[in-house]
Amino acid sequence: MEKRALFSNKLLPYLLIFPQLAITLIFFYWPASQAVWQSFLLEDAFGLSSEFVGFENYRLLFQQPEYYRAMVTTAVFSSAVAILSLSCALLLASQADKNLKAGHAIKTLLIWPYAVAPAIAGVLWIFMFHPTLGTLARPIKGAGVDWNPMLNANHAMLLLILSATWKQISYNFLFFLAGLQAIPKSVIEAAAIDGSGPIRRFWTIIFPLLSPTTFFLIVVNIVYVFFDTFGIIDAVTGGGPAGRTTTLVYKVYADGRLGGDLGGSAAQSVILMIIVIALTAVQFRFVERKVQY
Where would you tag: which of 172, 187, 196, 244 has the fewest CB atoms within 10 A of its CB? Predict the structure, then answer.
């Protein structure tokens, strides 16, 4: 007979979930509601006076060519980082799942980079690829490449993509490895006995069984590239050169904190929040259909 836990005190379940609800309300819903309200206000740089202007901030925002350029930059940056980090992590996890010598040490070393803060990760990469001081920039220049991410927008974007990808690979690797270890080895062995090669086994058996993990990581990586890469962008390029690596989240900071346009910055944050919610909803609506639980 199935046993069920019964609470004699009817308030106890609500008390148990109250801390999580309080954290969500205080640190998410309250700031989000404040951003929505501030997007309808015209405020001075110090926030001492404000005037209700309705949708004026949104109207002015969509008249800026720089905002559309930031949208394109965000689309390119987010797509490249998500695809590269997921692909590299899946490749590393599939290799680490094999019986390797010093396998535990290798797995630990692959997970460690996730503990590095985004800003620190950005500083590490700019130290390696700085056009004059970088340890890896010198061999690149020695090969005849005029490497300069400080002035060349393509080089700056490539450096950002590499650093953001490196930071996220460890997180994806951890979940892919856990998903691979949860797959019954008997299923893979049966396919091998039937004559399926390693590549066919991966695409017909292993990868479909990893679809729940892959779907979860796609959602997480979209949120990561839209929000958590701010520290990397600020440390590596600061949105430059000439704003060519300014993403939507960095433009919120640049216009609000540096430019003093609090109302316009709030409007940008609201639009960014809507974009992320819409992308997540689309993934749950269409991508989840192909997930095999």
Answer: 187
Asked if 240 and 149 count as a contact pair (C-beta separation under 8 A), the reply is: no
Q: Please name which of 153, 154, 180, 193 lies closest in space to residue 96, comparing C-alpha atoms.
A: 180
Which residues pair with residue 50 across a beta bridge? 43
Q: Which domains does the chain have, with CATH numbers?
A: 56-286 (1.10.3720.10)
The 8 Å CB, 24+ separation contacts for 53-60 are: 53/263, 57/263, 57/264, 57/266, 57/267, 58/267, 58/271, 60/264
Between 118-129 and 153-182, two packed helices, what is the crossing angle to 10 degrees? 130
Closest CA to 171 of 278, 257, 85: 85
**What's residue 262's pLDDT?**
87
Closest CA to 165 of 219, 73, 236, 232: 232
Judge residue 36's burial from the number of C-beta atoms within 10 Å of its C-beta, 0-12 exposed, 13-18 middle, 19 or more buried: middle
Q: What's the CA gap between 22 and 29, in Å, rounded?
A: 10
Other C-beta atoms closer than 10 Å to the C-beta of 256 total: 20
pTM for the full predicted model: 0.87
Is 245 in contact with 153 (CB distance < 8 Å)? yes
280 neighbors 263 (Cβ within 8 angstroms):
no
User: What's the pLDDT tens digit per position in 6-65?
Assistant: 667 778 888 889 999 999 999 989 988 998 999 998 887 776 788 889 899 999 999 999
Vertex 259 angle, CA 258 and 260, to 5°: 100
Report pLDDT for 7: 63
- C-alpha–C-alpha distance, residues 58 and 269, integer Å: 11
Report the C-alpha gap between 187 and 160 in whole angstroms: 40
In degrees and rounded to multiples of 5, residue 78 shows phi and psi of -65, -40
